[in-house]
Design goal:
The protein contains ten helices and eight strands. By secondary structure, it is an alpha/beta fold. The chain folds into two domains: 207 residues, no CATH class; 77 residues, no CATH class. Strands 1-4-5-6-8-7 form a six-stranded mixed sheet, sandwiched between helices. A two-stranded antiparallel ribbon has the order 2-3.
Length: 299
């Protein structure tokens, strides 16, 4: 058997966000958000399009949007995105989508007490927080000095999974979360469903959906185009890094380390966001912002 890459946009939505995927998504969310416990009692997959409430405001398209009911009967909204490229403005987009999902719940005349919590779950195929060791990072509103919660309920929670930090191989898989993350990372390279994963009905079903033999020619063509696009973008980033390093070395000989860092950062302005450029070059965010203001460097 050959399986499609679950990390591509089309495949991710088909496996986790289609009409037949309710039980798959419940298992996945229980594994990631609730430690493998059967916390989610029910789930409804919703239209992922977030239209603007006011004319002229920005449309938003999510990968997956769902309403979950926990074991206490409390409703929450979960929005899920799979991101393979660290594009400019990505972190702000996540926060924007979460805030928009939260505010769009109210119609005219509704009270603020009707607002339900929103969880923004983002799976990334790159390191977002290299300074943190954990695989999963969860962010909520807290008081800056004493880290006191803003409210007893986390109205907006941002959850990030950094796939490169997941290092386990097939023999090492123990938890339900391990198996789902291994599915995301390795399904494309497998030729059969591993017995330890086949024992989980929802994962077995996910493999069946991901089996290329069950896709038509149009679906396979769409997947191929997405794979090519992702590879092209990654090659562009590598090229920009290579050119920036070469230019930085030449200028660094004449002008010192700072000029070299600025030259590399200049090459990356249209490819990476400011935080990624900062991690790559060592420049602080203020210096990178100034580069964007100043425009191209003069030779």
């Amino acid at each position: 058997m050959r399986f499609i890459n679950p990390k591509t946009d089309y495949a991710f939505k088909k496996i986790f966000g289609s009409e037949q995927s309710q039980d798959i998504l419940i298992s996945f969310l229980n594994a990631i958000l609730y430690g493998g416990n059967s916390t989610i009692r029910d789930l409804e997959i919703l239209n992922p399009h977030l239209g603007p409430r006011i004319r002229g405001f920005k449309d938003t398209y999510l990968d997956i949007k769902a309403t979950i009911i926990d074991d206490h009967g409390h409703p929450e909204t979960v929005i899920i995105e799979m991101q393979v490229l660290n594009i400019e403005g990505f972190q702000k987009r996540i926060l924007y989508n979460a805030a928009k999902t939260y505010s769009n719940q109210l119609a005219i005349g509704d009270g603020y007490t009707d607002l339900q919590p929103v969880i923004a779950l983002t799976i990334v195929d790159f390191e977002m927080f290299p300074e943190l060791d954990q695989l999963i990072s969860r962010f909520v509103l807290k008081e800056r000095t004493y880290l006191t919660d803003y409210s007893s309920i986390y109205d907006i929670e941002l959850v990030f999974i950094e796939l490169p930090k997941f290092k386990k191989e097939l023999p090492d898989l123990e938890t339900l979360m391990d198996k789902w993350l291994y599915f995301l990372k390795a399904a494309r390279k497998l030729e059969s469903v591993p017995p330890s994963m086949e024992a989980v009905p929802e994962i077995q079903k996910a493999f069946a959906i991901a089996n290329q033999a069950n896709l038509n020619a149009q679906e396979l063509d769409e997947l191929e185009h997405q794979e090519i696009f992702i590879q092209d973008q990654r090659n562009s980033i590598k090229k920009a890094l290579s050119q920036g390093i070469e230019q930085g070395i030449e200028q660094g000989i004449e002008q010192g380390k700072l000029a070299a860092q600025r030259a590399i950062a200049q090459q990356l302005l249209g490819v990476l966001d400011d935080e990624a450029i900062s991690r790559t070059t060592g420049l602080d965010l203020e210096a990178i912002a100034q580069l964007r203001t100043d425009g191209p460097l003069t030779p």
